[in-house]
Design brief:
Helices cover 60% and strands 0% of the residues. It is an all-alpha fold.
């Protein structure tokens, strides 16, 4: 996971900015996937990605409000170029003929990736406020993983069906 950041030097403001950028990157990728696939039926793969856009946007908004309350309009010092695919699904993960199950599996993998990012970063963080924030964000990602797993468990059997199976 190519992140060019020195976690030991992150301030709380920087950590919040980083978390916001991570959420925005994920929502942009999910939005791209939903747009690429287009909606063809209720609960199709594009619907899964659209649902994830809403989730990531909500989380980014909550973090932004927290940042605003603590730091006002202080300029952002963390740049988007310092991270890549921390939570965002892999760019080539979408296929035109993917199943709803596969879409949820992509979302699950992305949420797990975000958990891993925060979990691996925590030992390198020196600032206790940042460490506490990263633990909180890691725990939220655990909740997101569980929500996606629950959604997968509730899928009907036909959700695993992929259009490519028709080509045989």
């Amino acid at each position: 996971m190519p992140v060019a950041l020195d976690f030991s030097k992150l301030t709380l403001m920087d950590a919040l900015d980083l978390a916001i950028l991570i959420e925005i990157e994920a929502l942009e990728r999910y939005r791209q996937f939903a747009s690429q696939l287009g909606h063809s039926r209720a609960n199709d793969p594009a619907s899964v990605f659209s649902m994830m856009v809403v989730s990531e946007a909500k989380h980014a908004q909550e973090l932004s409000e927290r940042r605003q309350a603590l730091f006002g309009d202080a300029p952002v010092r963390v740049k988007k170029t310092a991270l890549y695919d921390v939570e965002a699904p892999e760019a080539g993960a979408v296929r035109w003929n993917m199943s709803t199950l596969h879409a949820f599996q992509i979302a699950l993998s992305s949420e797990q990736k975000a958990y891993d990012f925060y979990d691996l970063a925590i030992p390198h963080v020196q600032n206790e406020q940042v460490r506490t924030l990263f633990r909180e964000l890691r725990d939220e990602e655990t909740e997101h993983v569980q929500l996606v797993e629950q959604a997968i468990a509730q899928l009907p059997p036909e959700a695993a069906w992929e259009l490519e199976d028709q080509d045989d």
